[in-house]
Amino acid sequence: MRGLVEKPKSFQGLILTLQAYWAAQGCVILQPYDMEVGAGTFHPATTLRALGPQRWNAAYVQPSRRPADGRYGENPNRLQHYYQFQVIMKPSPTDAQDLYLGSLRAIGIDPARHDIRFVEDDWESPTLGAWGLGWEVWCDGMEVTQFTYFQQVGGIECDPVSVELTYGLERLAMYLFDRRSVYDLPFNDPDSRAPVLYRDVFHQAEVEYSRHNFEHADVTMLLRHFQDAEAECQSLLGNGLALPAYDQCIKASHRFNLLDARGAISVAERQAYIGRVRALAKACCEQWLKTQAPANG
Amino acid sequence: MAELLIELLSEEIPARMQARASEDLLRLICDGLKGAGLTWGTARAFATPRRLALVVDGLPVSTPDRTEEVKGPRVGAPDQAIQGFLRKLGEGRTLADCETRSDGKSESWVFLRRIPGVATSAATATAIAAAVAQFPWPKSMRWAANRQPWVRPLHAIVAVLDGATITGEIDLGGDRIAFGRRTAGHRFLSPDPFEVADFASYRDGLRAAHVILDPAERRAAIEAQAKAAAATLGLVLKDDPGLLDEVTGLVEWPVAHVGRIDDAFMELPPEVLATSMRAHQRYFTLLHPDGRTAPHFVVVANMRTDPAGTANIVTGNERVLRARLSDARFFWEQDRKARLDARVPALKDRIFYAGLGSLEDKAVRLQVLAGELATRIPGCDRAAAQRAGLLSKADLTTGMVGEFPELQGTMGRYYARADGEADAVAEALRDHYAPQGPNDRCPSTPVSVAAALADKLDTLTGFFAIGEKPTGSKDPFALRRAALGVIRLIVENRLRLPLAAAFAAALRLHGKAPEDGAPRAGSPVADLLAFFADRLKVALREKGVRHDLIDAVFALGGEDDLVRLLARVDALGAFLGGEDGANLLIAFRRGANIVAIEEKKDKARHDGPVSIADLILDEERALEAALRDAGPVVDAALAREDFAAAMAALAGLRGPVDAFFAKVTVNDPAPALRANRLRLLSRIRATLGQVADFTRIEG
After folding, report:
1. Is the pTM of the predicted complex or chain greater than 0.90?
2. Mean pLDDT throughout B658-686?
3. What are the chain A neighbours of B146 within 8 Å (beta carbons)?
4. What is the structure's pLDDT at B169?
5. Domain chopping of chain B, boundaries
6. What one-character-per-residue DSSP string does B645-682 give?
7. Among A111, A113, A161, whose Cβ lies nearest the Cβ of B142?
8. Which residues does chain A have within 8 Å of residue B155's beta carbon, measured at their own beta carbons?
9. Are A141 and B312 within 8 A, CB to CB?
10. Interface of B with A (CB under 8 A)
11. CATH number, domain at A167?
12. Which of B191, B403, B408, B488 is most exposed, with the fewest beta carbons within 10 Å of its own?
């Protein structure tokens, strides 16, 4: 891409480069969804927009929370809060792989000087009732992106099919900037007036949220919140409000993840909780689909 | 004669599906060609990560015209029949268009219908469309707005016959792909498309464009490069045909590189290193000449690069491995902080199967069952067998097995040794899943045998008790494999373990009441005995044992001691292979046939005692005496399980039997003599029947 040949020098530079690249491909650049989610796929711009006949091309950063992955800031690779960069294109373009490889070039990975591979990986989200086929993309043996053609979302067949690209930004940045610990990543330009590391921005949060997720989150309250979210979701669906109902589904999902991290859910109960969230997700997807006009060409 | 070239170019096909897919392409296209009446010379199919290809040579350019005979009614048949026939032939046909045919008795009308030949190109176009529509991918997907699924998006189809592009297209239910002659080489090394005229220009064009078309050649290249890379360091490549197959499906242009494993990770068990490298990264393990794991690995890239690129590839892969092995080392250190016996209660949270309790329940059952089986296994320490049974599933709660399920058992052994468990117990934790099939290693040390038998018997009896038996091709719990495992463990270790008793012991632990006496039809024990008889027959047949010998021994019924049963089959085979046995079989059949025919005629059985007074000829008296003498010898031999001796005693009957048939007329006019002779013949059948059911033997 002209104007983007300069390799990013920082974590935020990586994000800005990807945003500029995908904006140039015609994607709508959205901002993160303002709720706690486990992955970029939960953003309604993916989950809901993957359904229905309308064209849709979007890209965004999504902070993703996996409470059980907290390591009190001590593990150089694992975080309970991290960033995904998400791209969704519907219908999936014929040159989806080439567009993706263009994004690698944009961030400074020249496929002629690396070993880029598309290795089989089937994707499934039991809580969203979603699955797709595709690959994990390897760069010199490291998984840098999840590349998925959605087949079903919310138990509903995708027609047309979307392609979803998910870049794990911290891991990609560690690779690009050759850092062994996520905390040593340059958050902004290291040559700038006030260089900041990833540690400066997030280390305290990792320590505190790990304590919250594993030790202090109030289980009784979380169980109540789960039930409240479930009931509210169903009630909103009764009023035909797909988007607000879906917010409650996201909420229930995150409460479940917290309960899981707290060890409050037994192995036997786990499947039942996942089934309850999936039922909400399906109902929201069905309601959303009712609101979608026929194809806009 | 013409050559046909087909290529289906797509996005990356999963490695594990490629070999089967190339066979399916060959089968489907050839079926289509055959259906069009075409014949050809050879057909070969190939697969790379992005393409399936097929070349068929020796095809005609078109099929010749054919005629088909339509048979009609007799000449002179009623008009209604004639009119019906003509209507079938189509508008405007009259008898003037038909001929008559005679079969020697009568004359009939026939019509010779001309079927014009088809062009091979048209037949191929149809065959390609049918193949795409029916292709049996194990998992396929849709893309964009198309309806037609494929394994991953399909981009182009080459279809060239005799140098010319075949006219046609595939309708994906949205997009259309016209047949053409353009293909693409390596995604990064030779991205420009190029045209092909025939298979030679296709294969050579691909090679020039950094794609080795033939998977066998790619596989050989990978193996040679990996071995050469190992040799430069004085190391050897660890043999891993499965990994070699998989890597063959991941690269179009293989380039092997050697990477270094940090010394800090070399304290990990070699299986952990190998599994971590193989499962996540598809790296090959390298060994020192003495067999120890070396601190190096081979990664096969799909890329030829400059030195800077090579450095990227090697350091990048080393870095990923470092992160992977850090995880493995974390598990290795964490897991050893809790003893295996302390992990057993945590198995409570893991369901074995609905209705069969948790894995903790299973562990407790295995403890008891392995102890009971120990008494039947020579040299087996009962306490050690019980310990192995109890601990056999404990490693499933470890982080390492959570991460690498294929290390179950292997890690149990390491952790048991770290806990100070006896060596025999540790070995049994590793061995109790074996044998996993006909070619897997079968445990032979006593404690391992007890644990392995207990695990399989518990699984088999549990699923049979809740009615989850394999049906047809469905065997979701691999019960057939488990039964074969039990058979191999018993037979190869020559264990005297009656199956019915073993099943009953295992069933009791599932809380099922023991059965008294012979198992009732439809009970789990009876079902399991029948299931095992089937599995044993399959196993013996695969070893080349004649199925009729197996049937002849199984027909005796009531035998659940596998060692004894197989000894009988062996002895029978040896007996019938000899001249005496073969001749006795002929005489036995002759006698048995006579008795059967006469019994049918008389509507009565002739199996009472033989009357000595009614034996008037020397030959019949001699036969009676020989049978009387043989009886106790056969009985005694059978009692001490000396089946060869029992057969030898039977072989002694051959002379008297042959003499009897030479001189004695069975159907004597005197009814008393006739009936007595039939009873004598019945005695032959009964005597031989103690050893095997000779009526089942063929040939």
Report:
1. no
2. 89
3. 161
4. 96
5. 2-62+119-208, 66-115, 215-335, 342-544, 574-696
6. HHHHHHHTTHHHHHHHHHH--SS-SSHHHHHHHHHHHH
7. A161
8. 94
9. no
10. 11-12, 14-16, 49, 139-146, 152-153, 155, 174-175, 187-188, 250-251, 281, 299, 301-303, 305-306, 308-309, 312-313, 315-317, 319-321, 323, 326, 349-351
11. 3.30.930.10
12. B191
> Is the Cβ pair B313, A161 closer than 8 Å?
no
Inter-chain residue contact A114 with B139, CB threshold 8 Å = no
Predicted pLDDT at B211: 98
3-class SS at B574? helix
Report the alpha-carbon distance of residue B97 to residue A207 in Å, rounded: 96
Are residues A269 and A228 located together in one domain of the fold? yes
B55: β partners: B5, B44
Question: Could you give the number of structural domains in chain A?
Answer: 2
Fold (CATH) for B342-544? Hypothetical protein af1432 (1.10.3210)
Mean pLDDT of A59-77: 93
- A271 is in which domain, residue-wise? 217-290
Q: How many CB atoms lie within 10 A of CB A151?
A: 24
Q: In whole angstroms, what is the distance from residue B433 CA to residue B454 CA?
A: 10
ipTM rounded to 2 decimals? 0.94
Alpha-carbon distance A36 to B236, whole Å? 51
- The verdict on A157 and A205 lying in the same domain is yes
Does domain B2-62+119-208 fall under CATH 2.60.40? My reply is no
Q: Which residue is associated with the tokens 């044998």?
A: B435
Task: Single out the residue in A209, A239, A265 at which a domain terminates.
Answer: A209
pLDDT digits (tens, 9 = 90+) for B627-637: 999 989 998 99
Same domain, A202 and A242: no
What average pLDDT is seen over chain A?
Answer: 94
What's B443's DSSP letter? Answer: P
How many Å apart are CA B123 and CA B166, to the nearest integer?
10
Q: Which residues from A are below 8 Å from B309, CB to CB?
A: 112-114
Contact B16 A120 (CB under 8 A): yes
pLDDT at B231: 96
Question: What secondary structure does DSSP assign to B218-262, as a single string?
Answer: HHHHHHHHHHHHHHHTT-EEPP-HHHHHHHHTT-SS-EEEEEE--
Q: In the predicted model, is pLDDT for residue B299 greater than 60?
A: yes
Same domain? A29 vs A145 = yes
* Domain-embedded: residue A224: yes
pLDDT, tens digit (0-9, with 9 covering 90-100), for B338-394: 999 999 999 987 888 888 999 999 999 999 999 999 999 999 999 999 999 999 999
pLDDT tens digits along A90-144: 999 999 999 999 999 999 999 999 999 999 999 999 999 999 999 999 999 999 9
Is the pLDDT confidence value at A295 over 70?
no
Chain B residues whose CB is inside 8 A of the A93 CB are 144
In angstroms, the separation between the Cα of residue A138 and the nearest Cα of chain B is 10
CATH architecture of the domain with residue range B574-696: Orthogonal Bundle (1.10)
Phi first, then psi: what are they for A76, rounded to 5°?
-70, -10
Whether the predicted pLDDT of B59 surpasses 90: yes
